[in-house]
Q: What sequence folds into this?
């Protein structure tokens, strides 16, 4: 008995799924579900393909209260730019959580991941940043540098943006893009210490393997979201900062202790206490990370299958409601 | 830069991909690649969804010499029959092994898995069964009972088929189907010991949790392929048989010691020797399982991502060559 599957391309998804407060709320609900303890989220399936300088990751999660669950496949083939192709691609498949039937195929080339990753940054900023942010800083100059700032601005409408990158020209281009997009003054800042000193909210978005944000730079009233590390050898925040902050929170303990900033702090022997709180605990009010405007908070995001399930379920409803995508009987 | 993705439904795949010697050769080449040692095949990603009595498995493998690699998603939702839906569904995604770009989506509802699983049985029979098989027996009465016999007949054109099942009526129906399909006499056999005694080739295709084929029943000139067990609690062959046989071979040691007949033999304390040979070693001539017509051989198949990559790569070429499937720019 064939059933209808919606097939939606990146081009169509970009028309329908926007980085807005509705997406932030959906991703926030995924973190709340994660903290409920009823989620099923297996470890990431990861396959390296040395002969092609490639890798592929598969993530999934089942969340209570969601009508579907997503399986996301993310290939990264790092010689692709030599062929004029992007390194990152991929798709999401949405299955009915009741029957396991395929409901939608999102040929998104990573677009939904970009959006749900930025939305998680907004969830972190909403619950952890000081209530008033005048200046936001971003370290890194790629797609997520732009999107993280755009997402954070939805929940903390700051008045200035500082951008640091190893390449000043790229930082300037990124600042120009942000300024044009948000209508907020943005400029490149060559000194990362000064960027942190002047900001109340800092997002790190780099693939750094040695810390780019030092513990000495922490100051009262600072929130940091570190979203760049997703492999054991990556590290953006000096491990001592995790202990020095008033509160350190992560998206998923089991991932962050292997792939996130927490991994580096544990490896350095600096994190010896009990496991940290998760962002979902903060969303649900089970853990209060910030008790005053002067507290210093850090949120470590490695990216979860729960976010994929949340955005895929949301995207499917949006696409059906506006009639976008091809339907195929299969 | 959009590229074209082929989307092929089960209905179209059934027109193009047949259980024939070409498919057997393709799956044999996957076993050869597995034995070459260069394969990348991560452990299966498995997620249980207790609230829906469901589960989902994800398999993948990269094989040297294949232009693509497949990721297969297999949901099993066991309350679906109450809704008039099949329990098993799923799809395969074929990626370019060079760029990681999606090349094809096979909305096959498990059809390609059925074919590649049966083809593996033919590979086992080709390399392990006595050269002359007069009677083939099958235990189990489902889709694989029919397909395994059909596949084995491609490589050992036997003259008679015996079918045993817990439900005699189902065994009779299965025998009738096989007889109509292969134009070979087939009948139900109520006594499994007699089925084994009269057969030179036996395939077990059940989800049994207690052995249905006893060690005492082994006789000279017998080959057994056990393909039913794919979970740690399943067991078709009495563990003592694995040791009593001249040679026991498995598709993948790392899987069979967890999910296959080998798992039961290890748990029973009966398998204490070195790891067994893999089917790929036999294909490549690295290991000779059968030295005479009187030897007794057993092959344990749990199903590998390598077979999925092989059949998906093959299906994509076939579909492109005959122009079947929809192309979508994504």
A:
């Amino acid at each position: 008995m064939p059933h209808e599957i919606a097939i939606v391309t990146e081009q169509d998804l970009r028309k329908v799924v926007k980085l807005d407060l509705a997406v932030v709320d959906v991703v926030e609900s995924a973190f709340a579900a994660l903290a409920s303890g009823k989620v099923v989220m297996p470890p990431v399936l990861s396959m390296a393909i040395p002969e092609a300088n490639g890798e592929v990751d598969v993530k999934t999660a089942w969340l209570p209260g969601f009508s579907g669950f997503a399986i996301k496949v993310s290939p990264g083939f790092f010689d692709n730019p030599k062929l004029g192709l992007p390194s990152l691609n991929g798709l999401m498949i949405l299955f009915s959580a009741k029957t396991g039937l395929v409901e939608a195929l999102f040929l998104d080339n990573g677009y939904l991941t970009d959006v749900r990753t930025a939305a998680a940054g907004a969830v972190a900023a909403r619950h952890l940043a000081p209530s008033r942010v005048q200046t936001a800083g971003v370290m890194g100059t790629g797609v997520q540098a732009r999107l993280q700032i755009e997402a954070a601005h939805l929940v903390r409408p700051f008045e200035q943006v500082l951008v640091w990158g190893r390449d000043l020209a790229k930082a300037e281009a990124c600042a120009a893009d942000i300024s044009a997009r948000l209508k907020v003054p943005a400029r490149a800042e060559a000194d990362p210490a000064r960027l942190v000193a002047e900001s109340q909210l800092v997002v790190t978005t780099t693939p750094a393997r040695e810390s780019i944000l030092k513990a000495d730079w922490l100051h009262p009233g600072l929130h940091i979201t570190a979203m760049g590390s997703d492999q054991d050898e990556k590290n953006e925040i000096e491990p001592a900062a995790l202990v020095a902050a008033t509160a350190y929170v992560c998206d998923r303990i089991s991932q962050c202790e292997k792939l996130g900033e927490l991994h580096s702090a544990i490896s350095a022997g600096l994190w010896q206490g009990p496991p940290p709180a998760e962002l979902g605990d903060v969303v649900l009010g089970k853990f209060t990370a910030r008790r005053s405007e002067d507290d210093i908070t850090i949120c470590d995001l490695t990216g979860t299958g729960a976010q994929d399930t949340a955005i895929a379920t949301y995207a499917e409803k949006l696409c059906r409601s506006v009639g976008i995508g091809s339907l195929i009987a299969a």
